[in-house]
Amino acid sequence: MKSPVWSRPAHLLTAPLALAAVALAAGPYTVQWNGKTVSGDAIMQGGKTYVSAEALKNAGIGVSVRGNVVSLAPIGGANEVGAVEGCLNQQLFNGVWRFKVLSVVQSGPLWRLKVEMKFGSATGGYSTSGTGILGYNLQMESGKVIPVNNSVLELRDRAFIPGEGFTTTLDFEAGAGDGKPRKLVVPVDPQGIASTSLNYSVKDPSFRVDLTCKK
């Protein structure tokens, strides 16, 4: 009787982060995240590929170093929300509100975002805060999330008439080591319109604006 023959399975190496496609061509390696090229270096040494902290940050992964420990985390944290997504100068619509980030400018310690909000319903008299919009959060290169300051009050409390648009500037107070802003997240609670005749057209009506791209 012949003994059974067992084949040895190939060893598979599963990367903890499906970070990038690295173009293995002559010259500098190109790092991509979800098909989009990000700035930063990548090298190959000893048969292993090393991606720089700069490239990781530009791909949306926060990097911090303390002593001999390097910590990685998605910028925005583990509770990063799904949302209606777009770029600078791109109008986003969730069935009730049309939202657009027009520009991003640094002024001293402030990052100032010029935004446009339009009410997309035929029924007026509603404010953003009265329809579930919870705030405006700026995500920085460092991974820090900064809430808007009191510059939001006029936009927050304004009662919009049907089809009305309103343009204002939102200010965010950043620290010296926070780097540049990468994303603006506007969380929206879909239950915020439960007692109204309004209807959000998407399951998650939050807005998420990538400030590194422009339409």
Question: What keywords describe this structure?
Answer:
five-stranded mixed sheet; 215 residues; disordered N terminus; four-stranded antiparallel sheet; mainly beta
Architecture overview:
With 215 residues, the chain is mainly beta. The protein folds into two domains: 29-75, no CATH class; 78-214, Immunoglobulin-like (Sandwich). It is built from two helices and 16 strands. A five-stranded mixed sheet has the order 8-16-15-12-13, with no helix packed on it. Strands 9-10-11-14 form a four-stranded antiparallel sheet, with no helix packed on it. Strands 1-2-3 form a three-stranded antiparallel sheet, with no helix packed on it. Strand 9 and strand 10 (97-107) form a beta hairpin. The longest helix is centred in the N-terminal third of the chain and has 6 residues, at 53-58. The radius of gyration is 22 Å and the shape is elongated. The N and C termini lie far apart (71 Å).
The total domain count is: 2
Low-confidence stretches: 1-27, 76-81
Principal-axis shape equals elongated
Give the amount of beta strand, in percent.
35-45%
Briefly say what this structure is.
With 215 residues, the protein is mainly β. The chain is built from two helices and 16 strands.
Topology:
Elements: E1 21-22, E2 31-33, E3 36-38, E4 42-45, E5 48-51, H1 53-58, E6 61-66, E7 69-74, E8 84-88, E9 92-93, E10 97-107, E11 110-119, E12 137-140, E13 145-147, H2 153-157, E14 165-173, E15 181-186, E16 207-214
Parallel strand pairs: 8-16
Antiparallel strand pairs: 1-2, 2-3, 4-5, 6-7, 9-10, 10-11, 11-14, 12-13, 12-15, 15-16
